[in-house]
């Protein structure tokens, strides 16, 4: 219980600091949530969306899972996407992976890890789809990094094919998808040039992003 008590104490200190710096801070948060961005990222504790983008609470809507995977049968993720697009009217959806992703490494190695293997199978599909490219890279760390990138690229394409995104684009709603990756080693975000604002932009963006 000691560690849990420490969290409550840190929360108390943080709350007081926020009020000292801005007495109306929490009242503004209560009254509105109007983010321009939906962030779909990895659950990795080293990749907090708000902190690495310099955004405050209320400025980015967030969904996270292991290895930032977007599956068409994942109602949790799809519900977040639907709410962000249809209700919050976000203008940008960012799929962000990170170098050094443990989930991607497990899929790359193909080792048995128990129940999580069912989820990682989606990344193994990405590995197999790009086997020709990955197998031609002699350096293991380079293959790992490239699979992290390819996973993001594939997940953006999956996202573009979901019902909420398709309906938004058909209706003319302003919505742009992006694929980014984060470097744990330097704290910098990298644009993978996998972006699309319409369905007819997707295939070209995908081809260019995969080509690197």
Largest sheet: 5 strands, mixed
Structural class: alpha/beta
Number of strands: 5
Identify the strand order in the major beta sheet: 2-1-3-4-5
Task: Give the overall pLDDT as a whole number.
Answer: 95
Give the SSE string: HHEHEHEHHHHHEEH
Gyration radius (Cα, Å) is 19 Å
The tally of helices reads 10
Unreliable runs, pLDDT <50, ≥5 residues?
Answer: none
Beta-strand content estimate: 5-15%
Distance between the termini: 49 Å
Shape: globular
The helix fraction, in percent, is 40-55%
List the helices and strands and how they pair.
Blueprint: H1 2-21, H2 25-31, E1 37-42, H3 49-53, E2 60-65, H4 75-87, E3 92-98, H5 102-109, H6 117-129, H7 131-135, H8 140-160, H9 163-170, E4 176-182, E5 189-191, H10 202-211
Description:
This protein is of the alpha/beta class and 212 residues long. It has helices spanning 2-21, 25-31, 49-53, 75-87, 102-109, 117-129, 131-135, 140-160, 163-170, 202-211; strands at 37-42, 60-65, 92-98, 176-182, 189-191. The chain has a five-stranded mixed beta sheet with strand order 2-1-3-4-5. Helix 3 (49-53) links the parallel strand 1 (37-42) and strand 2. Helix 4 packs parallel to helix 9 (163-170), helix 5 packs across helix 6 and helix 8 packs antiparallel against helix 10 (202-211). The protein is globular. It starts with a helix and ends with a helix. 31% of the residues are buried.
Summarize the entry for a quick read:
52% of the residues lie in helices and 14% in strands. It is built from ten helices and five strands. β1 (37-42), α3 (49-53) and β2 (60-65) form a beta-alpha-beta unit.
């Amino acid at each position: 219980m000691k560690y849990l008590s420490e969290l409550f104490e840190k929360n108390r200190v943080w709350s007081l600091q926020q009020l000292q710096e801005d007495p109306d801070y929490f009242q503004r948060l209560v009254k509105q949530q109007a983010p321009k961005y939906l962030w779909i990222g990895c659950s990795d504790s080293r990749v907090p969306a708000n902190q690495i983008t310099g955004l405050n609470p209320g400025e980015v809507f967030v969904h996270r899972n292991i290895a930032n995977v977007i599956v068409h049968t994942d109602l949790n993720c799809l519900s977040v996407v639907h709410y962000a697009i249809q209700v919050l009217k976000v203008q940008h959806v960012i799929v962000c992976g990170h170098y050094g992703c443990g989930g991607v490494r497990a899929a790359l190695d193909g080792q048995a890890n128990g129940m999580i293997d069912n989820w990682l199978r989606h990344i193994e599909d990405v590995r197999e789809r790009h086997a020709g490219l990955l197998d031609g890279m002699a350096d293991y760390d380079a293959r790992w990094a490239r699979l992290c990138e390819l996973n993001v690229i594939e997940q953006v394409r999956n996202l573009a094919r979901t019902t909420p995104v398709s309906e938004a684009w058909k209706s003319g709603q302003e919505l742009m998808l992006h694929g980014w990756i984060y470097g744990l080693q330097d704290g910098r975000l990298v644009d993978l040039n996998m972006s699309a604002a319409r369905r007819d932009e997707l295939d070209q963006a995908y081809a260019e992003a995969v080509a690197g």
